[in-house]
Design brief:
heterodimer; B: mainly alpha; two-stranded antiparallel sheet; 2 strands; about 0% strand
Chain lengths: ~425, ~350
């Protein structure tokens, strides 16, 4: 120790020399080369920082779906972009394990070392929240984020390089409120929500949207993801004899709520939020009989749903994912990846010149069909509309499959007003 | 002083150990000016995690108790840092570091006074509870930004002329980190270090010879908590967002892994631990996209199995075997130390 103390005594002296070194070695700003990074005459490069491991690794099929879909695109020669040149689309995935610190590191690596053209679909509100100031400062497109928070589309003027993809949770809530209003005016509603941004987005949107709707909020209970069960919350909520129960949950807790409600024999109708609406992940554990009559709103085609067995888009998905993919093709997140890839390819076809600005211009003026989205849904943006998907399809569970309920409900261009 | 006297004196000061340490320190200072921004950022994160690992080293390596609740104190620091930095005050990072140290040390004192009555596995369980509760508690409050997290505006204009943002962040973190390291090195001089070691090795015996074991452990816990909070301030500054999801139990476990891999009874070991936390997961996820987590787990197991004496010990052994004239502890013969 004595010797190291001597060094440490000298440490201030060494540190004082820093200012000298600054002037001597200051890096200065590097001059930008000609053209934007990550694009050549025959290739364009995207990267992502995403959840390949860690607490949200269940979403891993999403980036892997994008990767698999792009592998197919490249196999067929690439994308003919708006400037007439055919380019292959490269895609680099970096794992952040849902840790913001690793996401920042990854974003810097992608931009500065790998020199990507843009960052495509990172997963999670916290991860994207950590990297979006940096990416906007670097004028690097950060597109098709997987997070239902409204902030990704709320202020495109302040954050011109960032855009989401899926419908905001608020939009989904609006669809439920609309349906509740129509099926029973003046109904009593209770809400079970996960105590985080996910659950609270539903809760807050519901409170706002139901204000003049005649709907009556008779109970709200929250739970933590670390809770063992939501049974006591459900019992408490059902004591208010609500007509409808909105479950803003994740799959495990959605299943518990459905099961408990059935055990209690209540005739309350459950509105289950989209991310919990998997047949295998939620309804089977809850019991298919118990799940009869549950309502949800979706935007993707569910790969486990036999309804789509003859569907061209889904047939192509299964073929392609089995050939090029390394993930569980029955995961709805894989379909999500293909949907995002399809939109990306269409944007590239509309990109008039090989610059990031031209690319973002195309992103801000999308109007595309998508073979992986529920019928009738569009990917659409425009002036004052920075939310790609704003339409949802209501569905009811018939004990075996989801059955479509009426026409898709659209809030095209209206999302900011909902939350 | 005669000429030979000066030479002897120099030889005495410039041992292999000090030479290496000086070189490492110098490398740290020069690094940001010769490296690309991305690597500078990575090294800044290494410094940030090194400070946190150092707090684990003090508690677990020197004092003994194992804590898996260090994420709690890091979070205290991170939110203190975020709130103070966002006020836009000058010298926000050093001021926040001092504030966070004091707040966390007081909280650590209270927690330690309660928890350290327990021993061994019970103490670990209490700290696990603390670690698990941290993200849940954060989400309950509004000022923390809920689970969306709190953005930290480090201020793009804060870097002085001639310095890029990443270089300035590095310099600030290196400065704060160096103060923490130096302060701990100073505190770990003879009396306290011996007391800690005595309590760690045999608490009963320590008490018999008059060491106040409870006080010693609680002090170590409080100081360690404060240091973790300083790491939290730097984390908020460097990452630019503090969110509940970041400070899970896994965060605390990673710090302990870093401490074990780097060598928990060493100051420089904390730097190795910090580097492990930053570089190894990034490296393992590059090996195989789908199996990053598994490869990381294997890397940790391998590091612990293959380097049972800790990385810093290997350095010490190498030095001895190459005949470095490092002083050996007075009461030990060379054969006893290996």
């Amino acid at each position: 120790m004595p010797s190291s103390r001597r060094v440490l005594r000298r440490a201030p002296l060494v540190l004082v020399t820093i200012p000298l070194l600054l002037t001597a070695c200051g890096r200065g700003t590097t001059a930008a080369g000609d053209g934007d990074p990550g694009i050549t005459d025959d290739s364009i490069m995207f990267g992502t920082t995403t959840s390949l491991s860690g607490p949200t690794s269940a979403y891993a099929p999403l980036p892997m779906g994008i990767q698999s879909c792009l592998a197919e695109v490249n196999d067929k020669g690439g994308v003919t972009m708006g400037d007439g040149k055919k380019r292959k689309v490269e895609f680099t995935m970096l794992d952040d394990a849902y840790q913001p610190s690793r996401a920042v590191q990854n974003a810097k690596k992608l931009v500065e070392q790998d020199k990507v053209f843009g960052v495509l679909n990172s997963i999670g509100t916290a991860v994207n929240g950590a990297i979006y100031p940096y990416l906007n400062e670097q004028k690097t497109p950060q597109i098709f984020i997987s997070s239902g928070a409204t902030k990704w589309g709320a202020s495109p003027d302040t954050w011109p390089w960032t855009i989401g993809y899926q419908p905001a949770y608020a939009t989904e809530t609006a669809v439920y409120v609309e349906h509740m209003k129509q099926s029973k005016p003046g109904a009593k509603v209770a809400i079970l929500y996960q105590n985080d941004d996910l659950g609270k987005d539903y809760l807050n949107a519901f409170k706002k949207l139901s204000q003049d709707s005649g709907l009556q909020l008779v109970g709200e209970e929250s739970y933590e993801t670390s809770d063992a069960s939501v049974d006591s919350q459900v019992v408490k909520l059902l004591q208010g004899k609500p007509d409808f129960l909105l479950a803003a949950t994740t799959p495990k807790f959605g299943a518990q709520a459905i099961k408990k409600k059935a055990d209690l024999g209540a005739d309350t109708v459950i509105y289950l939020n989209n991310i919990s609406a998997g047949v295998e992940s939620t309804l089977q554990p809850a019991g298919l009989d118990a799940s009869k009559g549950v309502i949800t709103a979706g935007y993707l085609k569910d790969p486990t749903d036999p309804r789509w067995s003859g569907d061209e888009g889904m047939k192509h998905y299964f073929e392609s994912a089995k050939k090029y993919g390394k993930f569980d093709v029955t995961s709805v997140w894989g379909v999500n990846g293909y949907a995002i890839c399809d939109t990306l390819v269409k944007v590239l076809e509309q990109t008039k010149s090989p610059t990031r600005q031209a690319f973002m211009d195309a992103v801000r003026a999308m109007d595309f069909d998508n073979p992986y989205l529920a019928p009738g849904l569009k990917v659409k943006t425009g002036a004052g509309d920075a939310f790609p998907i704003e339409t949802l399809q209501l569905q009811e569970f018939d004990g075996k499959n989801w059955r479509m309920l009426g026409e898709p409900i659209s809030y095209e261009g209206k999302t900011p007003k909902l939350s | 002083m005669s000429r030979t006297g000066v030479v002897t004196r120099l030889r005495d000061v410039v041992t292999v150990k000090t030479a290496i340490q000086a070189a490492v320190l110098l490398a740290f200072v020069i690094f940001p000016f010769v490296s690309p921004p991305f690597q500078v950022h990575q090294m800044t994160e290494v410094i940030v995690f090194a400070v946190m690992v150092l707090s684990v080293n003090l508690l677990t390596g020197f004092a003994g108790p194992i804590s898996l609740g260090q994420n709690f104190f890091v979070a205290i620091g991170a939110y203190t840092g975020a709130l103070l930095i966002n006020t836009g005050m000058p010298f926000a990072v050093p001021i926040a570091s001092v504030a966070a140290f004091l707040v966390a040390a007081v909280v650590g004192l209270l927690v330690g006074a309660c928890a350290l009555r327990l021993t061994d596995v019970y103490l670990v369980l209490v700290t696990v509870a603390l670690g698990v509760l941290t993200p849940i508690v954060i989400k309950r409050f509004e000022f923390t930004g809920g689970s969306e997290g709190l953005p930290v505006h480090a201020g793009q204009a804060s870097a002085p002329a001639g310095l890029a943002q990443d270089q300035w962040m590095y310099v600030v973190c290196l400065g704060v980190g160096a103060v923490v390291f130096a302060a701990l090195a100073y505190a770990l001089r003879r009396p306290w270090r011996l007391r800690l070691t005595a309590v760690r090795d045999n608490e009963l015996a320590a008490r018999v010879i008059g060491v106040n074991a409870a006080k010693t452990k609680i002090m170590a816990f409080a100081v360690s908590s404060g240091m973790a909070a300083v790491g939290g301030v730097l984390y908020a500054y460097v990452v630019g967002l503090v969110a509940a999801e970041a400070f899970t139990l896994l965060f605390a476990i990673n710090l302990v892994v870093g401490a074990i891999v780097g060598g928990s009874r060493s100051l420089w070991g904390a730097v190795i631990g910090g580097a492990f936390i930053v570089f190894v997961p990034a490296w393992t996820s590059g090996v195989n996209e789908a199996m990053g987590g598994v490869v990381y787990g294997v890397a940790v197991i391998l590091a612990v199995i293959l380097l049972p004496g800790r990385l810093t010990d290997i350095v010490a052994r190498l030095r001895r075997s190459t005949g470095g004239r490092d002083r050996l502890p007075l009461n030990r013969t060379p054969s006893q130390t290996t």
